[in-house]
Amino acid sequence: MTQAGPLERISASEWHLPQRGGMTVPGRIYADSETVAQLEADVRRGSEWNALEQIRNVASLPGIVDAALALPDVHPGYGFPIGGVGAFDLEDGVVVVGGVGFDINCGVRMLATPLLREDLGSRIERLIERLFTHIPAGLGAEGRLRLSIAEIDELLLRGAAFAIERGFGIPEDLAFVEENGCAAGAASDAVSPRAKQRQFRQVGTLGSGNHYLEVQWVDRILDPEAAAAYGLEKGQVVVSIHTGSRALGHQIGQDYLKEMATASRKYGIAIPERELVCAPIRSSEGERYLGAVAAGANCAFGNRQVIAQLVRDAFHDVLDLPKGQIRTVYDIGHNNAKVETHTIGDERRTVLVHRKGSTRAFGPGREESPEPYRSVGHPIFVGGTMGTASYVMRGTERGMRTTFGSGIHGAGRALSRKKAAKRFWGETILGELAASGIHVRAHSARGVAEEAPGAYKDVERVVAAATEAGINRAVARLRPLAVVKG
């Protein structure tokens, strides 16, 4: 039970948090009973940081429409829960720093190769070593694309296309990147000089924490029609790149926490939690922040574009695979705020959708999807752990109606990084993964401990809950072969 009252079970994987107190809309949670029991236990223990109270807080913000949502990978975040979704009316609503977070447009790019798992054989060890040495990763890593301040501005305005013009990738990539690799409305002048300075040498770097590069193989096809549209087949080797806007995005978050705190006081907005500082969408402060978010998104698109080309380099160097034979399946982010049009009840409305640790999951027929995918909807990528499966999923008609076309983005943490580092030993985890045939190269043993498979929820449960709720549909299951960690 939360301060807002008990949860009401709607179905096996859908729960209702009634509208009470300061809430202007109810909360709606898509999760299995085990996840909900964990959420409720956090409240009973009096945990200061708990996702149910965060859902209640989001549901109390001005201009929120329909419901504050949480998806099956939900766990506490800063302000919004991770796995949280909130849509706001453009006239009466607010834009919220905590609804985007500090790693703006963190996301996944998946690359597909023409290779099958058996084609790699023993060369997988040389391949992962080449990927490890060729792709900068870890704290303080510096990228291969060094930029001046003017060039940073161009990256923030143009995204992935800027990186392609610098020789990292091919124009065909852009058709298979969300928003064609360039978020609309970017304002480089809304990004501080400090944020730009921190990014000079970080374009094309993987980073640390939960970021990774993973060589995978398609273990199962679960939706043949969608898999065929995406060009995926059983046994195929693919590569997933999970990273975001690096230091620039983090600095934008820090800068705007301060600016939005001032704006919240200026507009008389009651803030239940510090990271929920916000401003009216139509205010100068709100528009400025959205311009900075779009600029950060473009930085992330450019970052993943550079890394994708470095992956092509490594496959060519080790396997003599022509670079043009590695294609982009899709690139999509999961920390964003986007203006979108949705059917809410019986009405078509344009709203600002915040997705924090959640991804767009547009179903069939949306023009935002690449044309070859439009009949089935675009793919979304659900990361597991270094030792477990990941999934390709897609949106559904029901998800479009009930979640603003949103989807899960990963297994979701079960332990904080601090608790995981106390429970697991990095070298032990590396040995266990190697024994199971998974090759891992990492820049930090502590980072391995923090990201141990046991630190995360069971991805199978999370995917099953999203499927049972009807909001996302599984297309293919992937298994790890080799992993690069920061």
Can you describe what's shown?
The protein has 486 residues and is α+β, with helices and mostly antiparallel strands. It is 34% helix and 25% strand. It has 15 helices and 19 strands. Helix 4 crosses helix 10 (284-319), helix 5 (149-158) packs across helix 10 (284-319) and helix 7 packs antiparallel against helix 9. The protein starts with 7 loop residues before the first strand and ends with a strand. The relative contact order is 0.17. The model has no long low-confidence stretch (mean pLDDT 95).
Measured between the Cα atoms of the first and last residue, the distance is 39 Å
Query: Percent of residues in helical segments?
Result: 25-40%
How many helix segments?
A: 15
User: Which percent band covers the strand fraction?
Assistant: 15-25%
Largest sheet: 8 strands, mixed
Class based on secondary structure composition and strand pairing: alpha+beta
Rounded radius of gyration (Å): 21 Å
Poorly predicted ranges (pLDDT <50, ≥5 residues)?
none
Task: Please summarize what this structure is.
It is built from 15 helices and 19 strands.
Distinctive features:
single chain; 486 residues; alpha+beta; 8-stranded mixed sheet; 7-stranded mixed sheet; 15 helices
How is the topology of this model organized?
Blueprint: E1 8-11, E2 14-17, E3 27-30, H1 33-44, H2 51-58, E4 68-75, E5 82-89, E6 94-96, E7 107-116, H3 117-120, H4 123-134, H5 149-158, H6 160-165, H7 193-199, E8 212-221, H8 224-230, E9 236-243, H9 246-266, E10 278-280, H10 284-319, E11 327-333, E12 335-344, E13 347-356, E14 359-360, E15 379-382, E16 390-395, H11 397-402, E17 406-407, H12 417-423, H13 426-435, E18 439-442, H14 445-450, H15 459-469, E19 472-485
Parallel strand pairs: 3-4, 18-19
Antiparallel strand pairs: 1-2, 2-3, 4-5, 5-13, 6-10, 7-9, 7-11, 8-9, 8-19, 12-13, 14-17, 15-16, 16-19
Helix pairs in contact: 4-10, 5-10, 7-9, 9-10
